[in-house]
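Researcher: Structure for this, please.
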Amino acid sequence: MVERCLAWGERTYVMGVINVTPDSFSGDGSTTLDDAVAIARRHVDEGADVLDVGGESTRPGYAPVDAATEAARVVPVLRALRARFPRIVLSVDTSKAAVARAAVEAGVDLLNCVRRAPDELLEIAAAADLGFVAMHNQETTQYDGDVVDAVVRALEEYGRRGVRRGIPRERMIVDPGIGFGKTAEQNLQVLRRLDRIVALGFPTLLGASRKSTLGKVTGQAPEERAVATAATSALAAAAGIDVVRVHDVAQTHDAVQVADAIYRGWRPAQWTE
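Model: Predicted structure, token format:
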């Protein structure tokens, strides 16, 4: 269970992305089991606390895949990672119930859904005693009023619905969905008010890694946005975000450790005066 491995409020945890897809927006997708395991090993060596495996791209203009194809991509990887890293928190990035059920059998701890909080997935997580990440997402970038107000309202509703479905509050994680149903300007507004997401009282996750908004600010290609991602992750840690989901673990790990030392009072085990 997630809370046994991740003690909320002590520090910011790093979730390493493993895309088992040929069409990842960031160009880091793996298409073989060996490649995926190698990426996972690097993430763990660089300080990842969580590994998140996904088998369907969500890039703009992505080609959807059916549940059987997605499961065939992620389940062998999940099984291999569960065997190799028995103490790591293991997550599956999916919005399909069939894939979620297969992932449960493969030993995941966490369901990470980019399609808000579907009741069927909430029920799977509750029945299997898992954590759940509900991400804000909508089809358009049009909002009735302030975008931050809308995101906060939606995340509060997702969290409450998950609790009603049987997921303990400490396992119901909310994600503001940077890059999903938001313009670059709206993404920056949400990032500036992460404290409001934290104030909801649910565990929190931020996935801003290599996103196009960072590219618009820096002028860099996705694979060049590690420093921009680390900067965003440090700001998230300072705001109290519990987990940051990233492609570049090493840079982010260092950035959030410094932020946690300053803002949370965290110290490494070897700390001496």
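Researcher: Any notable elements?
Model: The beta strands are 13-19, 50-54, 89-93, 110-113, 131-135, 172-175, 205-206, 243-246. Residues 14-263 form a domain with the TIM Barrel fold (CATH 3.20.20.20).
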